[in-house]
Amino acid sequence: MGGGGQQTEPAEPGSGKAAGVYTWEEVQKHRSRNDQWLVVNRKVYNISQWARRHPGGSRVIGHYAGEDATEAFTAFHPDLKFVQKFLKPLLVGELAASEPSQDGKKNASIIKDFESLRSKVEEEGLFHTKPLFFCLHLGHILLLEALAWTMVSYWGTSWTITSLCAVMLATSQAQAGWLQHDFGHLSVFKKSKWNHLVHKFVIGHLKGASANWWNHRHFQHHAKPNIFKKDPDVNMLDVFVLGKTQPVEYGVKKIKHMPYNHQHKYFFLVGPPLLIPVYFHMQIMNTMITRRDWVDLAWSLSYYFRYFYCYTPLYGFLGSLALMTFVRFLESHWFVWVTQMNHLPMEIEYEKNQDWLTMQLQATCNIEQSWFNDWFSGHLNFQIEHHLFPMMPRHNYHLVAQRVRALCEKHGVPYGTKTLWRAMADVVSSLKSSGELWLDAYLHK
């Protein structure tokens, strides 16, 4: 097998030597579950066996099988030289000189300009963290938890005090969710190991969830946002149909697991109320136990031990459990609206093999900046900048936003910004539109 007129045999993984040159057509033959090659900086790597050992999970790296993964590789790894040590033994060759550096529909001009922008913001120190910002954020989370418990301890467990306690705990949980997101993206400490450690503390001890579960799920979303079969966030388990393509497919095939033309109505019953207290809770516990992730399970159980130790003397075990469930219920509404308003109304499709900027912009939009929107969404109102630069500390998103907008305007890539209320309303209207497409296809095609 070879390319560019040179016939060579592929190198064995582990040799660390490039034995051949390949065309994109040849690389793209290796994209099955057990046979996966990818390209980084024109070098061809066989990740078939190593993918299972990938710290971010086998799926996220497997989503780039047969493709150029250079932009994703740069976006997700803070120390590229360190990661190259793991890639070197997997090297099997390089692209033929006659082959372009990018595959599929990826725009070489956009890739070049985006890489230039990334280099500039790195030189300006926009990937450097302000420690005080994250210390204050953690402090206000701990303060809310302490005040909620102290209030109930001193003033009793009346309905009014309990309701206020639940709101404070839900606020603490939601804000801890945004904070664990920062550590999970390695955007706080320079050393990854410290980000990983504090991530386990925040998502495990403060929230009762699993860092590994979150990593393996969330990085797939970032690698291939709003792409069916690759982004787990658009896998709705047949409860909803999304976008413009899936509803028609379901309608033509006469698939009717739910009355999808009414999904914008039952969304309020099964989406915001149940995602965290039911679906995520069951998935997290199942993942930790089936994968024997005892470290994450220990962190998670430390949250439950602390919570019941504090609240059982005040409410009893069942009362404490009811309070926790109500807090999760409130947090779930907060989480669903914030995370879906940036993505659900955007394009949701199958793989198109687009460049990083185009792919991310078609799947994301921003919400207008304000002090409240920044705090309420954990700065995910700058969803575009977050998706383009996932390791950038969130307090710097606004500093790069205008340059991202200018780059998008230069290349004709839509850069969307909405009000908070318009974005939330678009979640419902997009579900309604998809449901109508399904009904039309179901009845007439």
UniProtKB/TrEMBL annotation:
Assigned keywords, A-Z: Fatty acid biosynthesis, Fatty acid metabolism, Lipid biosynthesis, Lipid metabolism, Membrane, Oxidoreductase, Transmembrane, Transmembrane helix
Q: Boundaries of each Cytochrome b5 heme-binding domain copy?
A: 19-96
Entry EC number(s)? 1.14.19.44
> Transmembrane stretches, by residue range?
266-284, 304-327
Gene Ontology molecular-function annotations = acyl-CoA (8-3)-desaturase activity
Q: What is its main location?
A: membrane
Q: Which domain of life is it from?
A: Eukaryota
Q: Which GO terms describe its biological process?
A: unsaturated fatty acid biosynthetic process
SUPFAM superfamilies listed in its UniProt record: Cytochrome b5-like heme/steroid binding domain (SSF55856)
Q: Into which EC class is this enzyme placed?
A: oxidoreductase
Q: In which pathway does it act?
A: Lipid metabolism; polyunsaturated fatty acid biosynthesis
Topology in the membrane? Answer: Multi-pass membrane protein
What is any Pfam family matched here?
A: FA_desaturase
Q: State if Transmembrane helix is listed as a keyword.
A: yes
- What are the record's GO terms for cellular component? membrane
Subcellular compartments: Membrane
Query: Which reaction(s) does the protein catalyse, per the Swiss-Prot or TrEMBL entry?
Result: (8Z,11Z,14Z,17Z)-eicosatetraenoyl-CoA + 2 Fe(II)-[cytochrome b5] + O2 + 2 H(+) = (5Z,8Z,11Z,14Z,17Z)-eicosapentaenoyl-CoA + 2 Fe(III)-[cytochrome b5] + 2 H2O
Q: Which SMART domains match?
A: Cyt-b5
Which family, according to UniProt?
Belongs to the fatty acid desaturase type 1 family.
The molecule here is called acyl-CoA (8-3)-desaturase
What's the source species for this entry? Cyprinodon variegatus (Sheepshead minnow)
What taxonomic lineage is listed for the species of origin?
Eukaryota, Metazoa, Chordata, Craniata, Vertebrata
